[in-house]
TrEMBL record:
UniProt xrefs under InterPro entries: ATPase_NBD, Salactin
Pfam families the record matches: Salactin
Protein name: Uncharacterized protein
Organism name: Halocatena pleomorpha
Lineage: Archaea, Methanobacteriati, Methanobacteriota, Stenosarchaea group, Halobacteria
Length: 351
């Protein structure tokens, strides 16, 4: 993905980063364009048969070649212990080097809006010890970074008052922003993209009357490839049978039922938990934000038709018409927004 930009080659490189539980995205200028690089947030190690040394591969290569021992070290959203932090550091160092991120750079990275001091500290250490960002390293909330590409050019989002909802793999997060300031944050781990994957796997077993069991990776692939509120089409798949042979089956309801449940539960959390909390603390801001576009970010916002479905159901639940929007390519939006913030730091010599 390329975006035309005017870049000063003598200035530090402005870099945006999102280390996600499923995917990691890195955005930086290369030549006269801004490029977006993304990969799966995973690592696998193996023994070199010639030297006997342990080596590591990451991303899609690790997931495809070593499915039995690949590590998704940020499954909970953050590196919560030393082992996961070390694995995350190895992964990110390899990813940054592979994409030639310079040491002379200003790095802004997106962070989840959750109360996990150790995990956030470990994530900061992963970035700070990666050898990039020698000029400046800053973090901003993922939902704010993801809203930047959704609300016009430049950093228009930083000047506005609005609600952002991040529909991630490990958390559903919501926050009201007033010119970049977080006013009221909310996070739950009960309504997540990973939970949808579990629902799909369970639904497939039920729909096939117990003949088919799929893992969560396959369920996620079903969700990403076939999930669609606008025009879902039943699809077929084939599995190997124990003892030989194959079994072909058709999926009609498993994916759509899980997605339907997700939207219902997400609407319930926002309408009956987050918004009352916001209204109790900042009633004027609450009223104002409901008249502004609500921004959806995160991987679940990529499902075709989900944004409109969420808007319709939230409006019905609130008995008040609201507008919901999302950036193009929500999966990469947080890193792209972070890169715009880094670019502003470079332009204003704030480093």
């Amino acid at each position: 993905m390329d975006e035309e930009e005017e870049l000063d080659e003598e200035s530090p490189t402005p870099v945006g980063v999102k280390l996600g539980s499923t995917r990691t995205v890195l955005v930086q200028p290369q030549g006269n364009v801004v490029r977006t690089h993304e990969t799966l947030t995973c690592l696998a190690t193996y023994q070199d048969v010639l030297t006997g040394k342990r080596r590591a591969v990451y991303g899609e290569e690790a997931a495809n070649e070593y499915p039995e021992r690949v590590q998704f070290m940020l499954r909970s959203g953050l590196p919560e212990d030393d082992e996961r932090a070390e694995t995350a550091a190895t992964f990110f160092n390899k990813f940054a080097r592979a994409n030639n991120v310079p040491e002379d750079s200003v790095v802004v990275y997106a962070i989840p809006t959750i109360d996990n001091e150790r995990g956030l500290s470990n994530l900061a250490e992963v970035i700070e010890q990666s050898g990039i960002g020698s000029q400046l390293i800053r973090s901003y909330p993922e939902s704010l970074c993801g809203s930047v590409p959704a609300l016009g050019g430049g950093l228009n989002a930083i000047e506005r008052i609005f609600i952002a909802i991040n529909m991630g793999s490990t958390n559903l997060e919501a926050c009201a922003y007033r010119r970049g300031e977080q006013l009221s944050g909310f996070s739950t781990g009960s309504v997540t993209g990973n939970e949808v994957d579990r629902w799909i796997a369970n639904n497939v077993e039920e729909e096939t009357q117990g003949r088919v069991n799929i893992d969560q990776t396959t369920a996620r692939e079903y969700k990403e490839e076939h999930g669609d509120f606008n025009n879902f089409q039943p699809f077929t798949d084939i599995i190997q049978q124990p003892g030989g042979g194959t079994h072909e089956f058709t999926i009609e309801r498993s994916v759509v039922d899980a997605l339907d449940r997700y939207v219902d539960e997400a609407v319930n959390e926002i309408a009956n938990e987050f918004l009352p909390q916001l209204a109790n603390r900042y009633i004027k801001i609450y009223k104002q934000t409901l008249e502004e576009p609500i921004v959806l970010t995160g991987g679940m916002a990529c499902i075709p038709g989900l944004v409109q479905e969420f808007e319709d159901r939230l409006s019905k639940e609130l008995q008040h018409e609201v507008e919901v929007t999302a950036p193009e390519e929500p999966v990469t939006a947080a890193a792209r927004g972070a890169q715009r913030i880094a670019q502003r730091f470079v332009e204003d010599d704030v480093y």
